């Protein structure tokens, strides 16, 4: 017997129906259950989705009365009218995240408590899953040559993302002291996260804060830097201020992810590359290059800071089966660009 919502309603594990158990009660069980299985940034994103988008509308619904049609209608409405400021729908990515969270929590119901009808297991995302995109050989060569020839801290950050696979939130939180260039190593110790200051649509804007990874977190990791990239970084890091953030070269506030994404779009424009290329393509390209070099999914999972190798397999397994996507190793690519600079 247990009381998930501390409201004197008890449910017996194994019963077919648990009349009265709400979506809110179920999420009170699900969120703690995944906390150690996902990265801190992922957990905060899921918690934010639940608090801001799911519970206000579905929180008091009884699970055993919720249908697939109800959830699909809910997701479609989020696409059209989901923004909290009333200015239209949520992004495709956010709605896909909401869909994933709902399907995950309903799996918990089916597997652990067995009181929801089996149709919940067939809930699908309202979008087809998109293929993971990477830079082509030609695009990667154009981009790297431009970044090396116009080297500054901002452009070096794009090179770091391409050749180490770190996330946008991690490059923004990177400090000069995280580089161990004598041994061609990079320490990932923190991430930059957005913090909601107020739930009201017209409240103050979200702020950002750096969050340190604990030693047990999958995000806490040491990465290898190509020697050629280390040589480029020496000139940028020499004489920097103490405790400076890498992208700004100064202590204090880090550069925001959105601002850095705008800079990436500017670089794409200067290179004559499609502006539809997403910043995350740098991470995907790194993953592909890693697998062609090492052929090891477990080591790739550790390098990317994924909570488990299953996450990596789900994300990149299909991509790596395509034998047409054979690219140069990133060391050769960087060497060629470095020699021409």
TrEMBL record:
<dbReference type="InterPro" id="IPR050090">
    <property type="entry name" value="Tyrosine_recombinase_XerCD"/>
</dbReference>
<dbReference type="InterPro" id="IPR002104">
    <property type="entry name" value="Integrase_catalytic"/>
</dbReference>
<comment type="function">
    <text>Site-specific tyrosine recombinase, which acts by catalyzing the cutting and rejoining of the recombining DNA molecules.</text>
</comment>
<dbReference type="InterPro" id="IPR044068">
    <property type="entry name" value="CB"/>
</dbReference>
<feature type="domain" description="Tyr recombinase">
    <location>
        <begin position="130"/>
        <end position="331"/>
    </location>
</feature>
<feature type="domain" description="Core-binding (CB)">
    <location>
        <begin position="21"/>
        <end position="110"/>
    </location>
</feature>
<dbReference type="InterPro" id="IPR011010">
    <property type="entry name" value="DNA_brk_join_enz"/>
</dbReference>
<dbReference type="Pfam" id="PF14659">
    <property type="entry name" value="Phage_int_SAM_3"/>
</dbReference>
<keyword id="KW-0238">DNA-binding</keyword>
<keyword id="KW-0229">DNA integration</keyword>
<dbReference type="GO" id="GO:0006310">
    <property type="term" value="P:DNA recombination"/>
</dbReference>
<dbReference type="GO" id="GO:0015074">
    <property type="term" value="P:DNA integration"/>
</dbReference>
<dbReference type="InterPro" id="IPR013762">
    <property type="entry name" value="Integrase-like_cat_sf"/>
</dbReference>
<protein>
    <submittedName>
        <fullName>Site-specific recombinase XerD</fullName>
    </submittedName>
</protein>
<dbReference type="InterPro" id="IPR010998">
    <property type="entry name" value="Integrase_recombinase_N"/>
</dbReference>
<comment type="similarity">
    <text>Belongs to the 'phage' integrase family.</text>
</comment>
<keyword id="KW-0233">DNA recombination</keyword>
<dbReference type="InterPro" id="IPR004107">
    <property type="entry name" value="Integrase_SAM-like_N"/>
</dbReference>
<dbReference type="GO" id="GO:0003677">
    <property type="term" value="F:DNA binding"/>
</dbReference>
<dbReference type="Pfam" id="PF00589">
    <property type="entry name" value="Phage_integrase"/>
</dbReference>
């Amino acid at each position: 017997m247990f009381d998930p919502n501390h409201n004197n309603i008890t449910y017996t594990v194994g019963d077919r129906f648990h009349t009265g158990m709400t979506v809110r009660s179920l999420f009170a069980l699900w969120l703690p259950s995944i906390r150690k299985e996902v990265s801190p940034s992922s957990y905060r994103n899921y918690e934010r989705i639940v608090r801001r988008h799911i519970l206000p509308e579905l929180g008091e619904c009884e699970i055993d009365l919720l249908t697939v049609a109800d959830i699909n209608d809910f997701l479609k409405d989020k696409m059209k009218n989901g923004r909290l400021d009333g200015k239209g729908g949520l992004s495709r990515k956010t709605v896909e995240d909401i869909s994933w969270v709902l399907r995950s929590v309903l799996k918990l119901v089916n597997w652990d408590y067995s009181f929801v009808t089996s149709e919940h297991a067939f809930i699908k995302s309202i979008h087809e899953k998109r293929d993971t995109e990477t830079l082509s050989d030609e695009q990667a060569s154009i981009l790297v040559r431009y970044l090396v020839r116009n080297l500054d801290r901002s452009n070096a950050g794009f090179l770091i993302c391409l050749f180490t696979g770190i996330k946008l939130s991690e490059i923004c939180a990177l400090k000069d002291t995280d580089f161990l260039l004598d041994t061609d190593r990079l320490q990932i110790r923190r991430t930059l996260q957005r913090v909601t200051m107020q739930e009201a649509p017209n409240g103050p804007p979200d702020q950002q804060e750096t969050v340190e990874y604990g030693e047990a977190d999958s995000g806490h990791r040491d990465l290898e830097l190509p020697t050629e990239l280390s040589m480029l970084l020496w000139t940028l890091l020499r004489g920097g201020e103490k405790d400076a953030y890498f992208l700004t070269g100064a202590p204090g506030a880090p550069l925001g992810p959105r601002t850095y994404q705008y800079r990436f779009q500017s670089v794409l424009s200067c290179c004559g590359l499609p502006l539809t290329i997403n910043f995350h393509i740098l991470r995907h390209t790194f993953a592909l290059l890693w697998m062609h070099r090492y052929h090891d999914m477990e080591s790739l999972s550790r390098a990317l800071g994924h909570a488990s190798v299953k996450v990596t397999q789900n994300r990149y397994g299909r991509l790596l089966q395509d034998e047409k996507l054979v690219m140069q190793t990133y060391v050769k690519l960087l060497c060629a660009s470095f020699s021409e600079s």
